[in-house]
């Protein structure tokens, strides 16, 4: 009987250690990303303070246009997380201020972009440049009108 109780408690302790190890790995993984400079946690934490704007483009078009703008700005994209609908980048290869763009599909032809960063300056700068570049693009309707 004592042997079974001992096995039971060892099993409970073993399961507890396994669970704590699994949860601990998530923290270790994030710490490794932070050390490597590719963590998106700060961007996710600041998402509540993000600058938001909705555009009359579908999700794919918004992401494509945004990536083009970032390339023109010389931004260094270090993460594209499709599960979080996030593009994370540094302002440049020399300025490693992190900025994140979160994309939310409102409906088939409308997408919201949220610009998040721990730096207010970086957030405002990128929001202004990306939003203006997307807005100033010639719409597909105007292109079709010119063709006809």
Descriptive overview:
This protein is an alpha+beta fold and 148 residues long. It has 2 domains: 1-36; 41-147, TATA-Binding Protein (2-Layer Sandwich). It is built from 5 helices and 5 strands; from the N terminus they run ααβαββββαα. A 5-stranded antiparallel β-sheet has the order 1-5-4-3-2. Helix 3 packs across helix 4. The longest helix has 35 residues, at 2-36. The radius of gyration is 22 Å and the shape is elongated.
CATH topology description of the largest domain: TATA-Binding Protein
Terminal CA distance reads 89 Å
CATH architecture of the largest domain: 2-Layer Sandwich
The spatial strand order of the largest sheet comes to 1-5-4-3-2
Q: Characterize the main sheet.
A: 5 strands, antiparallel
Order of helices and strands: HHEHEEEEHH
Q: Give the helix/strand class.
A: alpha+beta
Helix content: 40-55%
Q: Tell me the name of the CATH homologous superfamily of the largest domain.
A: Kinase associated domain 1, KA1
The amount of beta strand, in percent, is 15-25%
Unreliable spans: 28-37, 138-144
* Domains, number: 2
Q: Output the number of helix runs.
A: 5
Number of E-state strands: 5
CATH class of the largest domain: Alpha Beta
Radius of gyration equals 22 Å
Determine the mean pLDDT.
Answer: 79
Categorize the overall geometry: elongated
